[in-house]
């Protein structure tokens, strides 16, 4: 009998292994399960539809999306790098087989933003903010009016201008790229700060706002490549920046009067009439960022650092989820586009002692090309404008338009990461399994900062592993308190929570969180 039982051992082991495999597979999940992509137009999509009345996009239309504005529950408007505005109808259809394309405006100079306001389009061209209207109702623009101008254009290729975005007071905000390595012919059209010696086009590297009566006001400075603009629910304006010289990694900043962020060549315009920044005479070059902030009071930390490659490589547009839950459980949070990795990050913000700070989380990969522009549809879905012009990105296309749709399933995620006087509070989208959530082995927590210097980017420096002193789970399983005595202000605090499961035993879809701790809350 004993010998005979051995005959069944392989079958028993195989059955056990199959059971384990089925259990693992039951928890297998992907971003697509929760947020699916619909391709409206990418290079491949033009020939896949066979609808009876379908018409392809015009053969010469290269939809390198540089601006995007949702108009209603059928149409979106798209600005393209070629200098045109197109209106696309039928973009919500699934599948989108009957999309129509109508050119609304042309002869623009590299528009890099688009909004629809009071019956007109507004876009920032390389040298001006422009209002564009169709006054006779034929569906084509016939009025192009300069709303504001006055920033410098030296002819350098990198002098992009972005926007606008509107704030609750009706001001139109825009941001201006810095010129990188100006040559003699560019400097002839630049301004120079006499103390620091920096030369740039007028107001280059600045954030500006245009009042409803057309006055252009310089607000803040220190930008390198500020391609994203967006307002939160409170009406405060933010911009995103990209890694480079003086910029350690991608960042998200709160724009406000007199703030200086990081790129020092923007100070070339510091002494121009209207500048709210004065008196910077020396630059702390080569110091850890927290030390540089102490040495230079005008230098303001970002609300969020995006650790390089962990949370993107080249941040782009900013979009507030203002859908009231139609786009899932993240209403009120920011989504930030990513160029190189053709992806999207999610951002939770809070205000501590008057300073914005918060956490970024991976959200969605797999777009067909670089994500440059985003806007939320009337149904809560997100339209995503794509173009990899001038830089390579992941993906199967060079340009196009896609739509990201919530499937109705809630992903198990860290919804919020909040700073506490002695650690962090995690808020989840679903109740946690208390056994795994209270286990210190489920978490890894460390902090680091970056070097503030004239070189390109920065490694993570002054790394410190943090020990969790206590873990508390709320009665409903939705919140976890992590206590540690090692918090450091002006440092990124990186959390990995691979061991945490929900009440069904499912792991987090994205166990990573990166919190920028500008201020430690007071007790």
From TrEMBL:
The keyword Signal applies. It holds the Pfam family DUF7133. Coiled coil: none annotated. It comes from the Bacteria. Residues 1-28 form the signal peptide. Residues 101-249 form the DUF7133 domain. The keyword Oxidoreductase does not apply. Keywords: Signal. PANTHER family: LARGE, MULTIFUNCTIONAL SECRETED PROTEIN, LARGE, MULTIFUNCTIONAL SECRETED PROTEIN-RELATED. This is DUF7133 domain-containing protein.
């Amino acid at each position: 009998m004993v010998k005979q039982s051995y005959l069944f051992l392989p079958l028993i082991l195989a059955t056990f292994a199959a059971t384990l495999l089925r259990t693992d597979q039951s928890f297998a999940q992907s971003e697509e399960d929760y947020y699916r992509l619909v391709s409206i137009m990418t290079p491949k999509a033009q020939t896949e539809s066979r609808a009876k009345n379908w018409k392809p996009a015009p053969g010469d239309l290269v939809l390198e999306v540089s601006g995007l504005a949702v108009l209603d529950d059928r149409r979106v408007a798209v600005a393209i790098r070629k200098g045109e505005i197109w209106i696309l109808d039928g973009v919500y259809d699934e599948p989108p087989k009957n999309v129509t394309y109508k050119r609304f405006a042309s002869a623009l100079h590299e528009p890099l933003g688009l909004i629809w306001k009071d019956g007109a389009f507004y876009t920032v061209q390389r040298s001006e903010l422009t209002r564009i209207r169709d006054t006779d109702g034929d569906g084509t623009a016939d009025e192009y009016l300069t709303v504001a101008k006055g920033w410098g254009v030296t002819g350098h290729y990198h002098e992009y201008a972005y926007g606008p975005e509107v704030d609750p007071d009706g001001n139109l905000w825009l941001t201006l790229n810095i010129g990188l390595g100006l040559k003699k012919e560019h400097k002839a059209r630049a301004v120079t700060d006499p103390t620091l010696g920096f030369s740039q086009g007028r107001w280059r590297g600045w954030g500006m706002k245009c009042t409803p009566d057309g006055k252009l006001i310089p607000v803040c400075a220190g930008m390198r490549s500020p391609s994203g603009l967006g307002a939160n629910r409170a009406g405060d304006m933010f911009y995103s920046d990209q890694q480079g010289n003086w910029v350690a990694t991608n960042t998200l900043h709160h724009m406000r009067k007199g703030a200086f962020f990081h790129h020092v060549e923007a100070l070339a315009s510091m002494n121009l009439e209207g500048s709210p920044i004065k008196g910077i005479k020396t630059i702390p070059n080569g110091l850890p960022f927290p030390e540089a902030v102490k040495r230079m009071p005008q230098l303001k930390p970002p609300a969020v650092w995006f650790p390089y490659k962990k949370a993107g490589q080249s941040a782009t547009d900013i979009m507030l989820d203002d859908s009231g839950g139609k786009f899932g459980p993240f209403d009120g949070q920011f989504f930030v586009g990513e160029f190189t990795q053709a992806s999207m990050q999610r951002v939770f913000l809070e205000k501590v002692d008057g300073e914005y700070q918060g956490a970024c989380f991976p959200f969605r990969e797999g777009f067909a090309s670089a994500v440059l522009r985003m806007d939320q549809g009337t149904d809560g879905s997100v339209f995503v404008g794509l173009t990899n012009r001038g830089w390579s990105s992941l993906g199967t296309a060079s340009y196009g338009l896609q739509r990201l749709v919530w499937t109705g399933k809630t992903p198990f995620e860290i919804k919020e990461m909040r700073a506490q006087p002695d650690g962090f509070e995690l808020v989840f989208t679903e109740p946690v399994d208390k056994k795994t959530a209270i286990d210190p082995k489920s978490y890894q927590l460390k902090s680091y900062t970056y070097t503030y210097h004239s070189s390109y980017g920065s490694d993570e420096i002054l790394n410190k592993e943090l020990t969790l002193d206590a873990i508390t789970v709320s009665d409903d399983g939705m919140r976890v308190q992590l206590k540690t005595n090692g918090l450091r202000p002006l440092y990124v605090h990186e959390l990995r929570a691979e061991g945490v499961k929900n009440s069904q035993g499912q792991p987090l879809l994205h166990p990573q969180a990166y919190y920028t701790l500008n201020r430690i809350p007071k007790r």
